[in-house]
Amino acid sequence: MLWLQRVLPGGKSVAVVDYLGKPGSGKPHGNSAQPTSNYVHTPAATMQRVDERVHDKGSCKAVYDELVEDMDVEDAPQNSRVVRNKKQYNTAKDRGKAGDTHAATFADEVQRLCSMLPTDDFIQSITLTQACVPCVILYNKRQLCDLGQLCFHKQIGSVWSFDKTYNLGHMYVTVSVYRNVVLQRPGSNVSPTFIGPLFIHGNSDFASYSVFLNHLAACLCDCDFKQLRVGSDGEASLRKAVKFNMRGVCLVSCTRHLCENLRRYAQKVQIFKQYKASS
User: Fold this and answer.
1) pTM higher than 0.70 for the full model?
2) Is the same domain home to 161 and 108?
3) Domain that holds residue 89
4) Is 180 exposed, middle or buried (0-12, 13-18, 19+ CB in 10 A)?
5) CA–CA dist 217, 243 (Å, integer)
6) Long-range contacts of 107-112 (CB under 8 A, 24+ apart)
7) CA pair distance 47, 71, nearest whole angstrom
8) Residues whose CB falls within 8 Å of the CB of residue 213, separated by 6 or more in sequence, listed in order
9) Alpha helix (H) ranges present in the chain?
């Protein structure tokens, strides 16, 4: 066993142990999507701390980063999915206590949504695909009109941005936003951000995103996509679908996501360099 003194911030000590035995035959969790991976149980004390923090903080990633920095390696969550799953479980539990209609089964929710399609002018499309959960496209005519008038100008037009959100229910929600450049907030002179078309989906692959973007491209077929700028984070399948369905579009990246990723990776590199220097 090798003890490393003052390796981590705060003067914490770390012990490096060389294990010479054979690992046990752990079995994967029954709900695991990867049946070949061993299941590692998260300690009850760790889950208690996760439960306390997800009520106070909105970002699951911020909770995960905080716990990884504060806790020992063996006690910290294995990955950020532990935090996301706990928050999603608490949300579903609270809805059930309140008697919300969302406490119904997933099939009931989909059936109810399909029954609203002929009469609700906000629900534009529900796509059923084999071996995939339904995809739902939501928007109204005003949003499409604003997109055609405010986004299709490369110099002064707004960037049409897409971002996928988590833990809003059984499925993902990809939200598109744009700035209404004809309006300005008093004092700051900044154009307000408006919500554009929404996409509810269970898969985040190229085919699923193409359902959404092909539908929007068909509705905006009279516009010149060479004058459009589309922004997103690092979702590769989303960017590929934008490029495929909206030929000539200019793809830009979100600076906030890039800065957050750079800051997070730089912190990991700094800790690793301190560890190497001490060893």
Assistant:
1) no
2) yes
3) 41-103
4) middle
5) 11
6) 109/170, 110/134
7) 12
8) 241, 242, 244, 245, 246
9) 44-56, 60-70, 80-97, 106-116, 141-150, 206-219, 236-245, 255-278
Residues 6+ apart with CB under 8 A from 168: none
Closest-CA residue to 25 (of 41, 37, 13): 37
Nearest alpha-carbon partner for 218 in 245, 248, 249? 245
Per-residue confidence (pLDDT) for residue 23, from 0 to 100: 57
Q: What's the residue count for the chain?
A: 279
Tokens (6 digits) for 59: 């970002």
Q: Which element (helix H / strand E) includes 131?
A: none
Residues 73 and 108 in one domain: no
Decide the pairing of beta strands 250-253 and 229-232.
parallel
Please answer whether residues 241 and 176 qualify as being in contact, where contact means their C-beta atoms are separated by less than 8 angstroms: no
Domain count, the chain: 2
* Residue 163 within a domain: yes
Whole-number Cα distances in Å, 172 to 132, 155, 200, 208: 13, 32, 6, 11
Nearest partner of 107 among 44, 170, 32, 201, judged by Cα: 170
Is position 98 within any domain? yes
70 and 123 together in one domain: no
Let me know whether 162 and 70 are in one domain: no
More confident residue, 263 or 237: 237
Pairing state between β 14-16 and 2-4 = antiparallel
Tens-digit pLDDT profile for residues 35-87? 556 666 788 888 888 888 877 766 788 888 888 888 887 778 878 888 888 88
Query: Strand order of the sheet with strand 135-138?
Result: 123-127, 135-138, 193-201, 172-179, 160-165, 229-232, 250-253
Asked whether 82 and 50 are in contact (CB, 8 A), the reply is: yes
CB atoms within 10 A of CB 110: 17
